[in-house]
Amino acid sequence: MVAERVPLPDDLHQQQQEVMRRAHFAFETAFYNTLKILENPPRDDLRNFLGYCEAWCTTLVHHHDVEEAVMFPYLQAKLDFAKELEQHEKLHEALDAFLGQIMLAQKSPSLFDPAEMIQILKSAENNLVTHLHQEIEDLAPERLKVYTSQEIRDLSARIAKYAMQHANLALGLPFVRSHTPPEYKSWPPLPWAIETLCLPLLAMWHGGYWKYSPYKVN
């Protein structure tokens, strides 16, 4: 039975917060899923598992890049997002270290150190979870009302344009979809042709990665 999808809100101010809520759910879900798998890692399938870890990390970095390049500068004219930027800086120290461990193990599997990777993630846990929840709160519709609906529409268009220009779709899109429950797959919104024809092909590109995801890509 196909789950009925929960649509995004029609109100653009509510929509901005809901999009962020769904994105952050994916990142937080992947964080705890990665931690769990690292406790008993699949050493006989290390290439795919490391690819899964890399997908989470690089997609989160890309998400932050979009915020820092487009969203924060736009909203900063009337609102304060300084604490989110500070959280980004701390998080990226851990993300860089985690990516370093991934690349080390990809070059030489004998150097795969799950204990060190767990330690890096644990050290970032509080800041990551706080950040993911704080940012959702700071995008509350009543707070965004200082901007008109047209301004929010303009912001969303700028975010989408930048994201598409800089995204690694073969990694990012299957990652997000495979960390989104079926009922919330109305996000990210995809035209029928892309969802039906292109998405399965993108998912096959790194198909071995998504076996570690909690949900199906489609």
CATH fold-level assignment? Four Helix Bundle (Hemerythrin (Met), subunit A)
Q: What's the number of structural domains?
A: 1
CATH level-1 class? Mainly Alpha
| Helix-strand sequence | HHHHHHHH
Number of strand segments: 0
Cα-atom Rg, whole angstroms? 18 Å
What is the CATH-assigned architecture? Up-down Bundle
The number of helical runs is 8
Straight-line N-to-C gap:
14 Å
* Contiguous runs where pLDDT drops below 50 for at least 5 residues: none
**Shape, please?**
globular
Strand percentage:
under 5%
Instruction: Briefly note the structural class of the backbone.
Output: mainly alpha
The biggest sheet amounts to:
none
Compute the average pLDDT.
Answer: 93
Fraction in helix? over 70%
How would you sum up this structure, described in words?
This protein is mainly α and 218 residues long. The protein has one domain: Four Helix Bundle (Hemerythrin (Met), subunit A). It is globular, with a radius of gyration of 18 Å. It holds the Pfam family Hemerythrin. InterPro entries: Dimeric_xanthone_biosynth, Hemerythrin-like. It comes from Lipomyces tetrasporus.
Compact description:
The chain is mostly helical and 218 residues long. 70% of the residues lie in helices and 0% in strands.
SSE layout and pairings?
Layout: H1 12-38, H2 46-75, H3 82-107, H4 114-138, H5 141-144, H6 149-166, H7 169-177, H8 192-205
Pfam family, one: Hemerythrin
Protein name: Hemerythrin-like domain-containing protein
InterPro entries: Dimeric_xanthone_biosynth (IPR053206), Hemerythrin-like (IPR012312)
